[in-house]
# Entry
Amino acid sequence: GFGWDNPGMEGKATNAFTSGIEGAWTKNPTQWDMGYFDYLFGYEWELTKSPAGANQWKPVDMPEDEMPVDPTDPSQRRMPMMTDADMAMKVDPIYNEICQKFRADPDYFADTFGRAWFKLTHRDMGPKANYYGPDVPAEELVWQDPIPAGSTSYDVDAAKTKIAASGLTAAEMIATAWDSARTFRGSDKRGGANGARIRLAPQKDWVANEPERLAKVLGILEPIAAEAGASVADVIVLAGNVGLEQSIKAAGYSAEVPFAPGRGDATEDQTDADSFSVLEPLACGFRNWQKEAYVVAPEELMLDKAQLLGLTAAEMTVLVGGMRVLGTNHGGSKHGVFTDREGQLTNDFFVNLTDMACSWDPVEGGSYEIRDRKTGAVKWTATSADLVFGSNSILRAYAEVYAQDDNAEKFVRDFVAAWAKVMNADRFDLVA
# Structure
């Protein structure tokens, strides 16, 4: 609409509609100086009302020649103002100490502001690999989640041979690679497998990563990485690929999972542990797990994770169906494992999900039993994150494609492609 009607007024300057607070914070609003702190700490302030009726603060006994000049009438001066947030800078002891330090050292204040502004405007760009141009700073900042360059010259096939002979199961390797990569967020380009921060606090202790299983797998892969001259980050992903290739072979197919070496291993000094708490998974529909019950449904949490990973609906579908039959559920749960050939990359999840000979019966705890319609026998159990691929019309369409007998090999190819996409989601150095 037209907003507030202001008949006879231009809607500018003194006639403009504002948020309610009105006034300037400094004597020279368009200049970089220390005027804000001089005003804040140089006067006592009392609560008042703006012309619009909003609560704000005005200085006590400020001489007129210290007041800001009216921006539209240089012959007039206006009372400056502060908000409650500004008052907190003065009355809170911690903020006060910080502001007094700024006031006493203008160069320190300018440098701190510049760094904060740079962080604010670049926080969603990911690591420095995404920066371009002559003004890219040489300094490495911890909030950029820096990662040292990794090697690309080691013998990948030799490393794969050692991994295959390590005694780790395919499910252990696939789950660990997935957990390492799934933290990627396309929204701010944080997380992902590069850096292998899954071996550092806090990720190594996240419930979502099954710390005991993770410690076992890392204890085997880290020596292999050291011997091969590869990063642990590379070897974690490579092990996932090895496990996947084993599962594909067991299903009667042949496929080589794409792999690009060159990931690096981040150190503790390069990791702001507290900042990674926002990346901790509270649920993972791909491994059929959530930390606790939430208002948001499991399938909605899964959809959110899929969009953060940059996955299409088809890619989400094929990954979930494959992860179920590979036996990678969190904690060994059997929900959604619609197959008698667990560990083989087959399209059984979709075949049995779309089988009209089965009924879906809800049970206590929010899960479901998949029963034979004729005998009533329970064949499998499931969560809503499984059954959404049969109940949602869009996802059902993808599920029926992958359930077709003549699309079994297409399912394998599509799974491999989607898997590689997730593993390389944070490899900005690979983008052409």
